[in-house]
Design brief:
Helices cover 49% and strands 18% of the residues. By secondary structure, it is an alpha/beta fold. The protein has a single domain, classed as CinA-like (Maf protein, Alpha-Beta Complex). The protein has a 5-stranded mixed sheet, with helices on both faces. A hairpin with a 2-residue loop joins strand 4 and strand 5. Helix 1 crosses helix 2 and helix 2 crosses helix 6. The termini are far apart.
C-alpha cells in the first residue's frame, strides 16, 4: 500500500523487510530439505499461515513442502491435527505439549518426513501472568522423535508473528540438518 502521494509507507517497508527475511530463511530450508531428500509440513496457530506462506514464496517449494494446517481454534487442533482434548485442557493451547502434538499430528496426517508447529500469544490481548503476550512454543517432529523450544518475544503482534515464523523455519532447518548428519 502507498500513502496518498503514491510513496511506500513505513509499514509497507517494514512488511517488505519481514517478507524478505522470512523468504531468505525459507530458501535455506529448501536447500537443506532438497539436499536431504525429505518432505516437510507445517501446523500453525499464532502465525496464521506465515510459515507456510514463507516456504511457498520460494519457487520449487512443491518439491519438498507437502502442506500445512492453520489451526487457530482448539477444536481445529483436535479435529485436524489429533491434539487430545485432555492435553488442551491440562496444559492450554499455548504449551510445549500442544506444540509437540501439533507437529506430530500434522506429520502423521500429511505424510511427510519432518514437521514444525507454532503456538503462542501474538498479542496485544490474550496474555496472562502465566502465559504473557509474546510467549510462543515451536516444535519439530520426525522419525527420530521431537523437540520443542520456548520463546518470549517482546514486540507488537506483527513482530511476534514474524519472530515466531523465523524461529520455526530456523528450527526445522536445523532439525533436518541434524537428522541428515545422524543418518548412516
Amino acid at each position: 500500500m502507498a500513502d496518498q502521494t503514491g510513496r511506500a509507507t513505513q509499514a509497507d517497508l517494514l512488511s517488505a523487510a519481514h517478507d524478505e527475511a522470512l523468504t531468505a530463511l525459507a530458501r535455506v530450508l529448501q536447500r537443506v530439505a532438497l539436499a536431504s531428500g525429505v518432505t516437510v509440513a507445517t501446523a500453525e496457530s499464532c502465525t496464521g499461515g506465515l510459515v507456510g506462506h514463507s516456504i511457498t514464496s520460494v519457487p520449487g517449494a512443491s518439491d519438498y513442502y507437502r502442506g500445512g494446517v492453520v489451526s487457530y481454534a482448539d477444536d481445529v487442533k483436535v479435529a485436524l491435527l489429533g491434539v487430545a482434548v485432555t492435553t488442551l485442557q491440562r496444559y492450554g493451547a499455548v504449551s510445549a505439549q500442544v506444540a509437540v502434538a501439533m507437529a506430530t499430528g500434522v506429520r502423521e496426517r500429511i505424510g511427510c518426513d519432518h514437521a514444525v508447529a507454532v503456538t503462542g500469544v501474538a498479542g496485544p490481548a490474550g496474555g496472562s501472568d502465566s502465559k504473557p503476550v509474546g510467549l510462543t512454543y515451536v516444535a519439530v517432529a520426525g522419525s527420530a522423535g521431537h523437540d520443542v523450544r520456548r520463546h518470549l518475544w517482546s514486540g507488537d503482534r506483527v513482530e511476534n508473528k514474524v519472530r515466531s515464523a523465523a524461529a520455526a523455519l530456523e528450527m526445522l532447518t536445523a532439525w533436518i540438518g541434524a537428522a541428515n548428519e545422524a543418518a548412516p
